[in-house]
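Fresh eyes needed here. I'd like your take on this protein's tokenised backbone:
***
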Amino acid sequence: MIRHLELHHFASHQDTEIEFGSGKNVIIGQTGSGKTNLLLAIDFAFAGEVSEITLSELIADGADAAEVILDYIEPRTGQSYRISRTLTREADGTISHECSLSNLDTNETVQKPSPVQKTLESLGVSPSVFRHVVHVAQGSFADLLKETQDRKNTLDRLLQISQLESAYQELGRQDGPISQIELRRQRNLQKKSALEAGASKLDQERKILERVAEERQQKQMQIDEAIKERNELEKTSGNTLEALTALRANEDQIAKSRATIASSSQQIEPLIAKLGQILPEQDFNKIEQQKSSEIRLYLERLESDMRAQIEESKKHEEICNNALERAALIQSRLTLAEEDRKAILNQVAAIKTYLDGKGEQPQIECDRCGSILTKEQWGKHIKEKQEEATNLEKKTAELLTNRESDKALASQQKVKLEETRANTDSLKTATILTGQILAHRQAMEDASASTIQLQAERERLVGELRLISHAEPVLADQEVVSQALTIRQRLQTLSIQIDDLAGELGRYDEIHLKPQQKRVTDAEEATDQLRRLEPEIITDEKKISLLQTVRSALREIQPAVRRGFVSRITQSANDYLTRLYGGEEIQKFELTEDYEFIVTRAGYKRHAKRLSGGQQVLTSMAFLLALSEVLSQLDFLILDEPTTHLDANRRRELVAVLENLRRVPQLIIVDHHPELLEAADTRFRISLTKE
């Protein structure tokens, strides 16, 4: 149902808005006032084009763009939609077309370009039904009576006969449901044939698997027997292995002890030879024969002597250093005394020279007061200086004696220091050599004691091994060991044998058992798949049979559906035609199953297209009203100039029929006869202004 129409610069309309109501909407106006352009705008809104008119002609003169907005309530869902279309004249003369379809209830907008050509389909309206039935253009009422294939297809689509035929054709298509199911059935039949071949071998493959499993069991038994024997030997030889391991470790330790004794004995000989060059002969002989404990005592004595020599060396070194320091001090005092004596002698000589009249007067200060001596004091001063010089000579002689004594003492201590250092070095070397001899002698003694203990342990281990291996008492030790080793060799042989048998069993599994198990599994899977596949094949056969039955029914039901609609439409059209004609001239209207319009006039049947122009209009009007009454999907009809070819009486009858019309949801009528307004629920008058 159309609710609102809005035009801007469309054809002869500058800015026009119309709110349509339900029921009958009648628009009255003079010729050329723009009535038809309103209907063209509705066509353009729904279809995006207008028959036999170019898009450029829809743009108002002097304007560059035209716009149409139409609000529509879709009868199936009750939701409101808005169709907006805009035409724009481009600079190059082409026309661009913009369109949008909006759901006013959900605010969802579908943008271009899909709605441009599919607006009607989006709203559930067939374009052919809209073009041939919904909108009857001016002067086209009689076209409804023409027998054309397009009209028949339109009526089939309107009566939903074409949907039944489409479903019939869809089921019969090469890629349709029946063909697809049949193709799947054929594939399943082929698969069934292949599965039957695999499933038929199941019993045979199972028997082969049983035989292979028995052969494998025999091989497994051989492995189990060998493992059992190995386990028994391992129980018997567990202690044997421990005893052999301990015996081998014992023999290794004995060999190491003997090697230690030989090595130490070999290294002692050159050390004793070196020591013989240092020690006195009696000491050397003692060390050569003594045990480590005695050598340790002698070593301690050597170390004590060496420490004493070191202390004595320090004492001689200290005396020598002290004597040398005193000699150096005396030497410095001798140097000062000699310098003082020379100064005194020079002063005395200077005074004597002056007194003899041969020199200048010397400037001599008093030793006590520091004043310059007078001439009368010089004689006494000379005597004092001469006595001082004599005393210095005596002191120098005494210092020389002391210096020589200290030098002699230093030389004597130095000689003793050298002797004690030489003795210390000899004692140090002897101490080192003695220490090394002591270490080797101790190692030899320790190794000898260890060897004795190890030999005793070896005897115990051999005895234990003799008991474990149940060896004869007469067997030698080595024979007992050899007998014990055979147990280990047997264990090794068994382990190798078990590994070989396990490898052989693994290869048997890979070559025989697993492939045979795979063949049995494949046969079992084939049997299982076959069991599941057979119901699928039966189900597909039932589906094919059912769909073929449905397809046949779709074709067979079409005439019955057509007859039902035709009967109801004929009955309703007769009622409307009787009211329009009052039972005169045309006694009966009939719509055949081939959609031919037959009327009975004056007792004779004839085709409706042989009626007069006005009678054709009324017959078409009766048919349209009957369609709208019978078919719920026709929620609105558009009639352009329905009074064409009608006289005043027929127009009044049409008004009377329209006044009593209640079952058509919406009717939009455009005409130039004002009396039609009497039948309107919503009235419009349209006129053309100068602007």
Q: What stands out?
A: The chain has 13 helices and 14 strands.
